Amino acid sequence: MSHDCFQVTIEGGIAHLVLNRPDKRNSMIPAFWTELPAIIRDIDHNARARVIVISSTGPHFTAGLDIKAFESIAGGDDDPMAKRQAGLRFQHTVRAMQDTFSCLEQCRVPVLAAIQGGCIGGGVDLITACDMRYATADAFITIHEINIGMTADVGTFPRIFKLIPEGVARELAYTGRRMPAEEAQAVGLVNRVFPDQDSLLEGVMGIAREIAAKPPLAIHGTKRMANYARDHSVADSLDYIGVWNASMLQHAEIREAMQANAEQRPGEFADLPPVRPPLQDPE
Question: Is the pTM of this model over 0.85?
Answer without folding.
Answer: yes
